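dumping these here so i dont lose them again. two proteins, back to back, each one seq then structure tokens. dont judge the mess
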Amino acid sequence: MKKLVCYILLGMMSGSVHSQDLEFTQFYSNPIYLNPALAGTNQCPRFAMNYRNQWPSLTGSYVSYAAAYDNYFENINGGIGILAVHDVQAKTINSSQLGVMYSYHIQLNRKWTWLLGAKANYWQKFLDWDKLTFGDMIDPRRGFIYQTGDVPRGGSRGFFDASAGTVLFNKNFNVGFAAHHLNRPNESMIVGESKLPMRFTGHMSAYIALGQKSQYKNKTVIMPSVIYTYQNGFQQLNLGTYVKYGAFTVGTWLRNQDAFILTIGVDTKKFKIGYSYDVTVSKLNNGVSGGAHEISLGFNLNCTNRPATFRTISCPSF
């Protein structure tokens, strides 16, 4: 398995194949990672943090972190967001990015609001050559015992990229689209060129409240959602539903031919915490990979001024 991971990494670096972007299972726990147009949709200052450990049973697992802040500013009629992401791939490739985004909010009529967002992002990628193994290091009987004759070439790369997105929503429904890596920067960490492929994401969710006339304070809410992603020939369809009762949320998702996802969370409006587990259903299988664990935290601060006309989007919490 270790050799398999190394071959995959070498293919990514040489440009013979292209890498795909990191994706968090709790899509809406860090909304501005999903779509820059969602910056400022909470109105008040919002902080989000994510941790993901994918395939922990393998030697080369993927561990990812994200932290975000966004807020709505009435004087610019939109939201500002800051996003930082760090990803460690098989303990060999480290990738960090820092992005700044702006979302312009347009009230089309009494029911509908349109958001237009853009993001500028800086990446820094680093390859640890000491973690790689090559064919000339192998003895047919004793395995990896020789020093390689391969000479390190490069090892790091920094670059900018740009993204844009849009969202249309009303009280009970929202639909959005985002396009990432519009300028297709060179992400190769060795000699040569490897263009970062554009990634396109479409997302849609509904907010269906049950028992509106109930005498109880807590109402049950169902939030069906769809997320579709395309990047460099790779397609991914996520179908899911959340059920919310009071501060508690449970959800299930199916990622086509890849994973079945279970999510639980608590959202008190000021603080939220969520946990999800991906059960691998692909040929890799869950027993070999260990699935994927993900934890999210969120904090909402009080607003100093609340515009009377501001509309909060009804997105899922996790």
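---- next one ----
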Amino acid sequence: MVEKLIKTFYETFGEGGDVRTYFAPGRVNLIGEHTDYNGGHVFPCALTLGTYGIVRDREDRTLRLYSVNIDSVGVVEVSLDEIAATKEASWTNYPKGVVWAFEKRGFKLTHGMDILIYGDIPNGSGLSSSASLEVLTGVILKDTFGFDVSMVDIALIGQDAENNFNGCNCGIMDQFASAMGKKDNAIFLDTNTLNYTYAPVNLPDAKIVITNSKVKHSLVSSAYNDRRNESETALKELQAVVDIKTLGDLTEEQFEEHKGAIKDDICRKRAKHAVYENQRAIHAVEALKANDIETFGKLMNASHESLRYDYEVSCEEIDVLVDLAQAMPGVIGSRITGGGFGGCTVSIVKNDTVDTFIEEIGKAYLEKTGHEAEFYVVDIGDGAGKLG
């Protein structure tokens, strides 16, 4: 893969020079959805799918960016002295946003670069292709210019770029998982404090299967920001009657006691999801550590129910996939993963059921929706870094 990309790099930008290669993974969140901006816990893991970068220094102040995935756009040239988000900039707004966020912190780029990008994360699938590209850019800048930043800093810079340069009010989870991933482990992250632990994902008789609905979504233009605003409204009303900083501070019992303070029915449903989902994430990690995979699966199922009815970020096609999966013997648990409004489901499937799962659900989904699903039996990989 890397050798082929280097060949394409030379064909695109010309021969010679010191060429460096980098990789940043995508992520799948096992449980804890839409809790990361509500001060709760998440439980993502890095994938072996992700974004590759091939980089060479330039002597001027120009960034030349080329995506193998979107080759019709061609090479996009950006002056380091004119970093601004534009609709015409297409995908390059993500790396530009990271440059902007670094420079805002006083880290100055002294020269330009030629950068070739290739990602094997399906675009719009909810597996964090944008966060992967942001973290990749952060790692490239840290290595190239010797910036004194940690991998947690790179995650925060990526989030800043997405929030304030690209206009999507995402939480920290996606960038954190890409930057801090660890092979065969998921990350139990308290998004309120950024305290985290690694939890081994031991599935001796099962696999993680991601199903891509092929319904694309864009978090910037979707109702994602609306959900965040609704949650914040509920939090403010709860704070009038109980001493909390985030929705993640509440137990289920405390929420039920004080939920009457939330005036709007929709905002109350959003807050209920945030509180209950946070507790599900905590209990799910406890179950995994106790090798109680059945309980973990039940919590995944309950998570989808909440995302479907309380947070309302699912859609018809995703619900079809989840309903089909949950009804199949050998499926331990299944739910939507990612920001929602399309994208992917994540399922834990017993080894002897995986082939049947892919065949039967693929067929039934096509019949019911007219879309052809894609399936990925995934491995949990390491976080972002330099390859060579």
